[in-house]
Design a protein that fits this description.
It contains eight helices and seven strands, in the order αααβαβαββαβααββ. It is of the alpha/beta class. The model has no long low-confidence stretch (mean pLDDT 92).
Length: 229
Amino acid sequence: MSTPAPPLPRDVVDDIALRFAPCGRSVQGYVRGKLRWDPVFRQLAARVPFPTPCVDLGCGQGILLALIARLQTGLTGVGIEWDDRKLAAAADGTRGLEGIEVVRGDVRETCVPRAGTVFLIDVLHYLEPQEQSAVLERAARALVPGGLLIVRDVDTSAGVRAWINRMQERVNRVFGAHRGDTLEFSTAAATVERLRALGLEVSVEPSSGNLPLSNVLITARRPAESDDR
């Protein structure tokens, strides 16, 4: 079992939340809450530095890119998001970060640029199964040798905790927090199998912290000697 990542330093949380001041207090509060309580940000912060450039597919408000740029000097990367409201927040939150840009794009269709690290955080379950496979394949093929594909999603094999995830996502959709029309959850084992079939080395760890959820963080690495076939 993996050791829990330490909480983010208060000054880091404050600095990033301040970036979102143009978006209003509600967005700032959301950013603070995510950084304090969602374990994926602590987990990924503990892994800095990441191979660059970084590509955040479905970047939402750009919180992850803002966080990593705060911790990793010289980070270059792009966030891709299809929701114009979230994209506007991401533009505010990453403004002035040299080497970081956010662009409008649908992860189901967009070309994934060559990357040292690709993030897919809480994105796959908004896609149909065949779309999930296609996105994973394009993301994997975009990796340079030694590059990382990092996926956070629900593991439906986790019983009651997975059911809570499903209910949470349905409520979020009802209240407009997410635009996706589809909710297609998979097992961690199925996602791992897909990634290994693409020639990647895969590891899995929990990513729900103390919350009664079934999120897992899947790290897939393209071997350094890969020929990208």
